[in-house]
């Protein structure tokens, strides 16, 4: 019985050693909002890269908020840059959530944050 218990502990210990990834294990790089200067279709480009600094492959959900000059949120959208795929440790996934937004002339600033992490 002791042998069986010891075997189970040794078998499961590698799983316990891998802590779950957190939003702080990911970073947004190269986020560069671009608003077209003119044209009938004001397509926003809200592009950047999501980098995984976690020890294991995981995915992160991001939120982009468009704000007016006073900081009031006018629109907020969320997305998974890697879709339903994990991002390997040290790797990045490019994103552009601009297509999810409808341009408003009072949009002044755009912020991006990491709101959720999971392993697919």
In short:
This is Secreted protein. This protein is mainly β and 120 residues long.
What count of helical segments does DSSP give? 1
CATH class: Mainly Beta
Count of distinct structural domains:
1
Low-confidence stretches: 13-17
Pattern of helices and strands: HEEEEEE
Instruction: Estimate the helix proportion, in percent.
Output: 10-25%
**How far from one another are the termini?**
36 Å
Alpha-beta content class: mainly beta
CATH architecture: Sandwich
Task: Give the beta-strand count.
Answer: 6
Oligomerization: single chain
Main sheet: strands, sense, barrel = 3 strands, antiparallel
Query: How much of the sequence is in beta strands?
Result: 35-45%
Task: Describe the model.
By secondary structure, the chain is mainly β. The chain has one domain: Immunoglobulin-like. 13% of the residues lie in helices and 40% in strands. The chain has 1 helix and 6 strands, in the order αββββββ. The protein has one helix at 2-17, and strands at 26-34, 45-52, 59-67, 73-79, 92-96, 109-118. The chain has a 3-stranded antiparallel β-sheet with strand order 1-2-5, with no helix packed on it. Residues 13-17 have low confidence and may be disordered.
């Amino acid at each position: 019985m002791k042998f069986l218990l010891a075997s189970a502990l040794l078998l499961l210990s590698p799983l316990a050693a891998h802590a779950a990834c957190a939003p702080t294990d990911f970073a947004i790089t190269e986020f560069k909002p671009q608003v077209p200067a003119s044209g009938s279709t004001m397509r926003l480009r809200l592009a950047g890269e999501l980098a995984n600094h976690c020890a294991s492959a995981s995915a992160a959900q991001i939120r982009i908020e468009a704000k007016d000059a006073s900081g009031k949120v006018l629109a907020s959208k969320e997305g998974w840059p890697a879709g339903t795929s994990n991002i390997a440790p040290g790797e990045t996934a490019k994103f552009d959530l601009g297509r999810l937004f409808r341009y408003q002339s009072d949009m002044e600033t755009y912020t991006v944050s990491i709101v959720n992490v999971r392993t697919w």
